[in-house]
Amino acid sequence: MTFPKHLLDGYQNFANGRLPEQRELARELAEKGQKPETMVIACCDSRAAPETIFCADPGEMFVVRNVANLIPPYSPDGEFHSTSAALEFAVQSLRVKHIVVMGHGRCGGIAAALTPDMEPLSPGDFIGKWVSLLAPAAEAVGANAYMTGAERQTALERISIRNSIENLKTFPCVNILHGKGKLTLHGAWFDISTGELWTMNDTGDFKREDNPQAE
Amino acid sequence: MTFPKHLLDGYQNFANGRLPEQRELARELAEKGQKPETMVIACCDSRAAPETIFCADPGEMFVVRNVANLIPPYSPDGEFHSTSAALEFAVQSLRVKHIVVMGHGRCGGIAAALTPDMEPLSPGDFIGKWVSLLAPAAEAVGANAYMTGAERQTALERISIRNSIENLKTFPCVNILHGKGKLTLHGAWFDISTGELWTMNDTGDFKREDNPQAE
Amino acid sequence: MTFPKHLLDGYQNFANGRLPEQRELARELAEKGQKPETMVIACCDSRAAPETIFCADPGEMFVVRNVANLIPPYSPDGEFHSTSAALEFAVQSLRVKHIVVMGHGRCGGIAAALTPDMEPLSPGDFIGKWVSLLAPAAEAVGANAYMTGAERQTALERISIRNSIENLKTFPCVNILHGKGKLTLHGAWFDISTGELWTMNDTGDFKREDNPQAE
Amino acid sequence: MTFPKHLLDGYQNFANGRLPEQRELARELAEKGQKPETMVIACCDSRAAPETIFCADPGEMFVVRNVANLIPPYSPDGEFHSTSAALEFAVQSLRVKHIVVMGHGRCGGIAAALTPDMEPLSPGDFIGKWVSLLAPAAEAVGANAYMTGAERQTALERISIRNSIENLKTFPCVNILHGKGKLTLHGAWFDISTGELWTMNDTGDFKREDNPQAE
């Protein structure tokens, strides 16, 4: 069981390049603890890493990554809820000031939500169950035969971001701090093809960052 | 609701720096789809981002991040299991060749597992429930009064990595492919203070990468 | 009844500027007749003039402009059909090689189609009747409560362009020449806010011209 | 289906030239909406574009273009009337202050009106039907064997402009606002060969703008 070489090579690049430059920072973050101001919920997709997109340094962002960057609704039922646990930790213990839900183009999880009749990937059908969190919206979008497949995909990617932000507000700790202005919630959508970042405004619409007036 | 400036500044650095260099790569990954060879389960901790530690490019690694980088045991009970969904997708759809469970030093989730009497962070006590996946091991480690607090912390961090790797094997899709040699499972532990990477060998022990004989 | 001064001033600018430069061209086009290669169907909107957007010279494009740049389906019923008449003239008499249906952002006609219960602008309700050409698609788009108003607007603007292109093919003269490869049909969508042009590809999706990979 | 290159080249000229100069104007017109003071009914002819002739900026004129710049009589019969719809929108919604009917020399639609026995361009004979709106006047002009073909052409072009202005007044919304002095109606005729503009006065006669006494 040899550790993958490509990862060891990558680690060497880090050890020779970035690490020496940030040695003091790393030591300080270890001794004093992390105090990231931002929590990001992003997708597992290999093309949508928030640290890359935002050029983040160690200590900057507390990152949860799951399929299709979903926040489930608040459900204190005693079950295992990893995303809820991360949220609770970020809000109550780390006291982050910003939560960003970041979706992206060509998301496989969103595509799965739009294909509910797809054969389960395994008998457990974990993906099918997980993306069913989006079932009502996926059904509404999927019913529109006038839109192209790509248009429905992008539509649901953005609806999902708004939906996750609404689900964030179902968590009492988020709702209270948000109401007091101590916590702000944001949406972003990353175009993996062009590297463009779109951010959400007050109407729930997304605008490209290098050109905020784009439709 | 203005998008956080520090994130927009970071994005500008990406847009001006790394993006132009990798424009062709991004376009190709978008058109052909992602084919990462590696899945990494890492912690949400802002000091332990796998893309940073392994200098990963877009398309290289499919990354799940949850508190304490835990893989729960296979549990096809129809509930929402985000980490299991990501695993199912990586193994069955993306057909990754490697899964790396990467833990790190000073992990807040591991610390929480070692403090079961800690006040819940919120009435939902999601963290408490989540880290109870480690309860048996945490109890055994916590009972050892001869080890220092830091030694118990590091011990459980490493036990947890081995535990997650065992839980990976409870997933039939992982077990089958692992048995055929098409999928290898790896453990790693990152020292956030020094930037050192320790990898797991066949005995379950961790060795530092730049000096494999160090204890 | 004095001719509006702002128009006379504009005409003077033309007479002193562009006209002297294109005097030969104008004379030749008058004597030999127009032979535009392109027909454009655009909206009446004051912010979406095709000659401006494409920097067209006299003789380049035969332009029909109506509310929401709609092509109605082929309907040889002996009624007055101005858009059909223009199409017939362009295809059969001028023998254009390209037909471009150009829509735009924030189209009032599309907004009217999405507000079927709106009070008629006059007892004749000409607009209501005209945009009812889009009723099925408008209803499908309007039913999606998950999309924002702006998202539905843009969705229908693009659906309408595809719909008009399909209606073009219901005209036998278009269908025959298109089938022979002597006439190509194109879609474009102009962002009046940013001046960006999006063109339609074979899947019916729209891509921004300065960045063809944008979603 | 590649978008025509000559149009993309023209768009690049616009994007590099006029657009940067008018970026603020475009943004403002998009955000606040269009408020053109003038509606122009012009011909589809590629040599008679009103924005070119009047050097119009975005937001200045709401433009309808059909064959022979005809306004049909008010006909609230529940049929599809695109020119009437545009008129209704301009007058009732945009509240334009001026309507200009602009004809031009060598108009193919007028020529068609003067050739009623011409073979239909297609079985639908849309042009034949459309220009029959001018049938009475075309018949009277056509009967005059003493005028040359070109004189009859110019005569009908100008008769048609006056006829369209009379048809504008058959629309109650136009008639009411015109009667109150809130809306003025104008005629213009553009000589495509020389670039000269002729405007209509109270007697219905047309005078050249740079030399009002010319016949």
UniProtKB/TrEMBL annotation, chains A, B, C, D:
<comment type="function">
    <text>Reversible hydration of carbon dioxide.</text>
</comment>
<dbReference type="InterPro" id="IPR045066">
    <property type="entry name" value="Beta_CA_cladeB"/>
</dbReference>
<comment type="similarity">
    <text>Belongs to the beta-class carbonic anhydrase family.</text>
</comment>
<keyword id="KW-0456">Lyase</keyword>
<dbReference type="InterPro" id="IPR001765">
    <property type="entry name" value="Carbonic_anhydrase"/>
</dbReference>
<keyword id="KW-0862">Zinc</keyword>
<dbReference type="InterPro" id="IPR015892">
    <property type="entry name" value="Carbonic_anhydrase_CS"/>
</dbReference>
<dbReference type="InterPro" id="IPR036874">
    <property type="entry name" value="Carbonic_anhydrase_sf"/>
</dbReference>
<dbReference type="GO" id="GO:0004089">
    <property type="term" value="F:carbonate dehydratase activity"/>
</dbReference>
<dbReference type="Pfam" id="PF00484">
    <property type="entry name" value="Pro_CA"/>
</dbReference>
<protein>
    <recommendedName>
        <fullName>Carbonic anhydrase</fullName>
        <ecNumber>4.2.1.1</ecNumber>
    </recommendedName>
</protein>
<keyword id="KW-0479">Metal-binding</keyword>
